[in-house]
Amino acid sequence: MRKLLNDDRGLAMVTAVLALMVVTSLATAGFSLATHDLNSSAGDRRRTQAIHAAEAGLDRFLQYLSLPTTSVTAPACGANVVPNDTTLTPASFSVTATYYTTTTAGSQMTCTGGVLSSGITPGAVLIHSVGTAAGVTRTMDGWYAIASTPGQKQIFGGAIYAFGDVTIQGQGVINGPSTNPNGGDIYSAGNVALGGSGNGDTINGKVWAAGTLTLKGGTEVKLDAISKGDLTTSGGATVDGNVRSSMGALSLGNNTAVFGNGLYCTGSAPSSSAVKGTITKTTPCDPTVPNIDTWGQHAFVFDPVAAANNGYTVKTYTGLTACASAQAFIPTIPSGAKYVIRIQKDPITGLSCQLSYTSTVTVNGDLEIVSDGTLSLGSQALITSPVERKLILAFDYSTAGPPCANQSITLGGQASISTNLDTLMYTPCQVSFNAGSNTLKGQIVSAGVSLGGHAQINTYPILVETQSGFGFAETMLYRREVIS
Asked: Domain boundaries in the chain?
């Protein structure tokens, strides 16, 4: 018996089995924790995609309201008032609009057959947008005061619209407006190349290109990056939303990070390490994505009657000396006045002049320059204002719509337009900022855009008061997520 009690044979096996049980328990717990974290991360991604979709629904309806073709007495109302944006796949939105007579004690207005039926212009609208992504829904409400705007039009809602190519050379920043920080959108009917010279750009919005899309050097796009042609990244580019090439391939270089989904049509699937969401090959290819607007949808047509109705004085200069005369007059504009400077071609030679600044010019009132010629701001030139004013720069105005290769608006190195000036640059030709050009607060609508290094645009949608049309001007009272 004593020998049996002192016999420790098999003890090592028992110890080993116990240790194995402990290790197995720890591994099982670690696996469960990792699975939970992975599911949590996927859930967070779906929630982010859903709220982006809800915000896109609000923006799409606001764009509808501002169109000059929108009836001010019978606008669309009820559910599904605007079509869903197919580029948000797999996310989607559903928008419902309810109108009121005023923003205070106003009565809800009657919606019949999808339009207002009272024949009265509403004074407010409640926009209810539900975004959905992979079964996750989030909701945004927007409460806006609205007013009919005969003779006024917001011709674009994002930062840059180009009929042709868009190039940003590096370390550029496109910010959204204060009411929509991720609304610094770039739309191009041509190719888009961001992050030139190996330095990344930051785009606080989405980028859509009807041609190819190239993201280099640590460029970051805060929403979706979508092209019809090939979409190529390199140098650690980041896309916080989805990437899609509807007719081409996705070529995602080393250290690329896509936090949404990846969709492609041709070629091989991108690396799963680059795309955090799902990777899908779409067949057949879809030539309708992205749906880039035509030039005519953003065209500016000056109307002197609308200008007069909105309090503008129109001053016209003609001939080869027109620019010199206009340049001498602009600093004399009284504080708070509203002027249109119309610079026309010489009627005999058909030639136009160049408005050129090499130093500082101060704008004291709302100013719109509609010129058949070009604009040049020399190195370190500055257009400024002591208080917030509106500045519309429409050059090569009489040129037939794009394509047009003429350099119409040019900013030299470190030339700038003060952020006190809410500025719209419009031309059917080209806009070019040389390296080191400074901040622009406003928008660019042109045939093509080339921005040198360190350019910055703070998006600010401009309401043009000198163009005929109807639709609504909106004033945001609140925009917030609704938690059910």
From this structure: 1-150+470-484, 211-291, 295-464
